[in-house]
Amino acid sequence: METQFETDLIHAGEMKPFVERAISLPIFQSSTYEYSGEDDYNDIRYIRLNNTPNHLVLGHKLAQLEKTEVAVVTASGMGAISTALLSLVGHGEHVLAQSDLYGGSDHFFRGDFPRFGRSVTFFDNEKLDDLEKLLRPETRLIYVESISNPLLKVPDLKRIARFAREKGLISMIDNTFPSPFNFNPATIGFGVVLHSATKYLNGHTDIVAGVIATSKEQMRKIVPVLNHLGASLDPHACFLLHRGMKTLSVRMRWQNESASKVAHALVEHPHISKVTYPGLKTHPNHARATELFRGFSGMLTFEYKGTVDDLDRGLKKLKLFALAPSLGGVESLITRPATTSHSGIPTKEREALGVKDTLVRVSVGLESPEDLIADLFANL
Asked: For the chain, how many structural domains are there in total?
């Protein structure tokens, strides 16, 4: 029977009957397995080939949650991003990529892509009329984020997916910020969905992992590259991700609501000039986000009115926010992207994108939103 998202989190992909009647899936901490006549190298049971029972259960569950045919887990979000791109974009081929991306993705496109014989052209997601003239005969793929990191822009995703279909391009999207609870890109036509599972999917700030969800056709190209590059998730990390995902629905619902309360409150903060959150009516993409997403996630940013030194002193005084990179955990985190995720981007380019020294990114956790608001107002 067809079941709801919350039920799928618990039951999709699980091994039945239970292993030795254990309700929780055990950790299969074995590097290798008996050979049983497999014809394909990639089907041999071996940890590096990402096909232990812990890997397979996660893959089945994630595919059902993201509404794709198949999915695999990887050793990190960047492991998912780099593997998917290197698998589907060949030597001499070209990618169109959204200009305001997560710093690690930006570094990969700008630094590693040329060394691997691939090329990229960045586009402004508010100027999609330019896409046609940016196309080349060798363009293979278009790459975006469903909510950009850290500026929280929401591209016209339906138009981008349609453009990709019309031009015969692969459409690839990083869906980390919304999580599958809030958005399923495959339902509007995206061909490859990526996640840093380190974030909302796991939700407990204790592992690093990634996800690639796509069609069987594309996965046949991805898996051999993934296996050769060795971006394999350890079975114990698989177990922790599997356990963390089961609470995604209750966590994400609370974080959606709490982040909205915090964002609305910070609009009145005397030392904050601008709050960016897709759930605010002042967000330039609010109408688009409302149409696309079931919720607006737990991420927000703000721009501080004072000096960087004043801002840093205030951030260090916060009692409930950890001053740390990453996001999506049960605890609230706060960071200046200029010093963390985007520190490797030259200052002029970073500021041109809108990542100023006084930009602050907030990941709202599971604490009382009222307590978080009081902490921010008392110390910033």
From this structure: 2
